[in-house]
TrEMBL record:
Pfam families: NUDIX. Residues 21-159 form the Nudix hydrolase domain. Its cofactor is Mg(2+). The keyword Chaperone does not apply. It comes from Corynebacterium yonathiae. InterPro entries: NUDIX_hydrolase-like_dom_sf, NUDIX_hydrolase_dom. Its EC number is 3.6.-.-. It comes from the Bacteria. Keywords: Hydrolase. One of its GO terms (molecular function) is hydrolase activity. This is NUDIX hydrolase. The keyword Hydrolase applies.
Length: 164
């Protein structure tokens, strides 16, 4: 039976393009020291074969932080209790409805660090080719998901300010 609270489905993004997550989406910008956890997305996923942060569709009853932590546990096997959430920023949207696609979609990036300060072990699910702790200075050398490439400098700056 279909769960009416599931966020699985499309919404309207910039210029009316389809974006994943009927109720928006969220991802976790998880830092350990001067490294961030990145996911090499499987080719079959939305924006596949690019690098970005773990994340996905928000369910109707979830906050962006809850969604980001759930998706990170599903995609990376990192438990929420091993993560300290510091901030959350809407990094895309909201966008107007387009055709039969619902509007008001946003992407929220949740900024967090590992509780130990060290990179945590990860286990990738089928949505990833690879998970990697990438030094900040090497992130922009990867084939990044376009929206993440645009937001990365601001996210890095915000995280560095939070860690002072």
């Amino acid at each position: 039976m279909h769960n009416p609270h599931s966020g699985d489905g499309w919404a309207a993004g910039p210029g009316g393009i389809r974006v994943w997550g009927k109720f928006g989406a969220a991802g976790l910008f998880l830092v350990a020291g001067r490294k961030v956890l990145l996911q090499h997305r499987a080719a079959w996923t939305n924006h596949g074969d690019t690098w970005g942060i773990p994340g996905g569709a928000r369910d109707f009853t979830e906050s962006p932080t809850q969604a980001a932590l759930r998706e990170t546990e599903e995609e990376c096997a990192i438990a929420p209790h091993d993560v300290e959430v510091l901030d959350a920023q809407v990094t895309a949207g909201p966008y107007p409805a387009a055709g039969d696609l619902p509007g008001e979609w946003t992407y929220t990036t949740v900024l967090a660090r590992t509780r130990t300060g060290a990179p945590l072990p990860t286990t990738a699910n089928e949505e990833s080719y690879e998970l990697r702790w990438v030094p900040f200075d090497e992130v922009e050398g990867l084939p990044l998901l376009a929206a993440f490439r645009r937001s990365f400098p601001t996210l890095r700056e915000r995280m560095e300010a939070l860690n002072r």
